[in-house]
Sequence to fold (1071 residues):
Amino acid sequence: MSLSIAARFARRELRGGLRGFRIFLACLALGVAAIAGVGSVRSAIQAGLSDQGAILLGGDAQAEFTYRFASEDERAWLESVSTAVSEVTDFRSMAVAEGETGAERGLTQVKSVDDAYPLLGEMVLDPPMPLSQALDGNDLPGAVMAPVLADRLGLSPGDSFALGTRSFTLSATIVTEPDDAGGGFGLGPRTMVRTSDLEGSGLLAPGSLFETEYRLLVPEGTDMDALRSRAEAQYEGSGMRWRDARNGAPGVARFVDQLANFLVLVGLSGLAVGGIGVSAAVRAYLARKTAVIATLRTLGASRRVIFLTYFLQIGALSLLGIAMGLVLGAAVPLVFAPMIAGALPIPVIFTLYPGPLAKAAIYGVLTALLFTLWPLARTEEVRAAALFRDALDSARGLPATRFVVATGLLVLLLVGVAMVFSGSPQITLWTAGGILGALIILAVAATGIRALAHRSVSAARGRPALRWALAAIGGPRETAASVVLSLGLGLSVLAAVGQIDGNLRSAIDRDLPEVAPSYFFVDIQPGQIDGYLERLENDPAVSRVDTAPMLRGVITRINGVNAQEVAGDHWVVRGDRGITYAATPDDRTIVTSGEWWPEDYDGPPQISFAREEAEEIGLKLGDEITFNVLGRDITATITSFRDVDFSTAGIGFVMTLNPTALQGAPHTFISTVYAEPEAEAQILRDLASAYPNITAIRVRDAIDRVAELLEGIGAAIRWGAAATLLTGFLVLIGAAAAGTGARTYEAAVLKTLGASRRRILQSFALRSALLGAGAGMVALVAGILGGWAVSTFIMETSFAIAWPSALGIIAGGVLATLLAGIAFAWGPLAARPAQVLRARE
Amino acid sequence: MPAPVIALKDVTLSLRGNAGMVEILHGISLEVGSGETLGLIGPSGSGKSSLLMVMGGLENATGGTVEVLGQDLTSMTEDQLARFRRDHMGVVFQSFNLIPTMTALENVATPLELAGHRDAFERARAELEAVGLGHRADHYPAQMSGGEQQRVALARASAPRPDVLLADEPTGNLDGRNGDAIMDMLFGLRDRHGATLVLVTHSNALAQRCDRVVRLTDGEVSGEVARAAE
Fold:
């Protein structure tokens, strides 16, 4: 019965309209919209990848080999299960064009194809022509190239260039390559040639680093899971990797997923900020309702009826806010669909996706419950006597125990739901901890700011505007806490992002060039290594040369168990890995446990494994790793762990074996060269001329490419953080608006006592600026702490405060509160004192 | 002798203010008989309204006992007090305290709804008719004059047929003509339903209409006058 009466009363109370709830609705709507929007875009991308999976993959399924082509038998099996097969190889090389000022060289990712390519989708070239015609060429075999590479080499259609020892004619530039996105991150722009034209180029020699992919079209209705099982059984021990169109671009899918998960976590911080605004709005509303609640108590309403009445009313309004957020979150991606689709190099299908909307709604409901429960709990404390005096005044401790418990459970539920939805439990926990930590710091800071302001009042005697401002901040109202919490949290998120971003850029721009090599040279044939070293060792501009033999293999089993079952999605077991061998550890190697094999060791294969990655996977000394190289399984025992620092961008291998383990396996050498910048170009020219099959990767260019990608990610995250800040600004406006009544009264009294409007405005402005500066400084500390934690524990780089970003945060905080404070000061300043004071009676 | 409807024994009331504890009532003992009209008078700050609130269980006495209809209000929880008021009391305030988002009819029906009466709205309409506002049933408080709002408050207080009616300066915010009309209605309702009426007032004219008048000064009973039997 309580519920039905409460529902009736709640309906009547809703007739009061939305006055006082605009900010409440906006905060909830914005938080939910951000999460719904990110989720909708992710679903749109996933749908596009799934729908176009076959085109991105280049077929219905793909069998991939590293270092080799399929044998005749292997090829025959593929043809027996398919209606068409296309063979594609993928490798890095140097394209060389003779120009007027000498040879121009450019790193390129070469794709060599057969006549069946592409099985699906369409190559679009400029000038328009069929791919087969472009690859036919005229006197020389034809090639097509990405426009950016053609520009860099100064090539136009009809010009010739070299790959390895073979010359080609550029027939056209590539406008669209249907399976481009399925290949993932590449360091060089694309060049495409016919595989048969690479004969004699020295580029696909045994031991060279290339991948061969066999794309298949299968009959309609083929059971892909069954086909996968058959393929894995057929090719067991061959090192073959199978993929099908249901996951046509796994690298892209994984990237989009992780970025979206992270953005949702940023969105959750926006909801937390919004929650503060929601809580403040509900508190203000219920404070206005004290007389009504006390009257209902007088008339015989129980505490339960009162609580339920306002719970239902606030609940209805929360659902309205959440609905508004869902509409916005669903609509904005649809409205901006053409722009988003144009900016992404992958297919996107924009429509309504219920899944992300449902998740956003769940987040919204839990957040609304969490932040409205305590203010609603206070309604139980309103006594009938409140009609006669402030019966709620002093002791405002915790609400009843059941509300404290319920709040704790809601926090756990919200974090638990976020952990499940995000798929990254650890990062979610860290984020939740960070938000909670920031809120605690901010709440303590708000109390501290008020106490400091209160103590400073006497020191401001003689400066009335400042004294009034300090008295207002330190006075018994809650506006200060709302401002510091909401704006502070938004600024904290932005500050943390700014510090992390700044330090990442520094690590790349500042630290890395000092330790990184000038060049990585790959595909050095064993017969070339001596001549290669001779050229470099006599060069005074070269400070260091490292070389290592390199093969690539796929880890298939750990202790006899499928590697993915043991290591899950760890990057070491994903795809193929570089493997090397060495008789002795070099002087930079630190063996942390176990023992390196003797120099002349000739026994069963042994591995020295990278310590950090071993810990992540859970490996220990004595474990057996089976990996496949060139179709042959090799099982080796881990006999030592060593520290490997990948952050130097130098040579580093997860697995090093004893030399005899890989005896006879065709392989090449890789090398890093540390040279003075002025000497780099000459070194490249000499080596590329002498050894056209060697590929040179200029590390600075690779770093720039990575930095470009990180900038894009950083921009997305900054937009997410900006949404959080916008919510904080809304809460700030809400707090400013809520204080208008009190400021009007204050202004009326001050005017009566003789204060000028200028002086009153100064006081209002000062209090806003001081609060904003306080929020900004606390946000800065929180942001620096967050940035330090991420830099130290996740990025494992050194940390330095990024001052431009830091000072910008404080300035932003001051400006935001100042603007809000001044915007809401005109009304109070304009009110006539007599009217205000008479109305008060 | 029939038991008193309201019996206060050594009632004290202390409240915590910003400057510390403030003693409002000092050991008041008082009885009100069934059907009696008691007027509470005294200067501002003498504790009249506080005494009324203690009688109604709206304020918890710090010491002493408060018995209404034989039940000890000082041993009741807040919810028990709310239920007791719902079932036995009607309260009329100086500032009306109508719920602004409810119509006149809904305001009057509220205590009846809380008591679970199925015919709450029918009874409420009859009460509004009795105070001459049947035609304003669907109007909100903001659409009514002060006198009309107080009439709605009267109807709300009397609709549950309370045993005790408490009125705190019911004419305090009204002009003379409206105030007289309200008092006529209040006493009329008391006469019709036989409720015991306790009334706080500054008005001598109103006090003279009461069966008995108790004067309070500084939280203590400083005088008592019974109206001579007619």
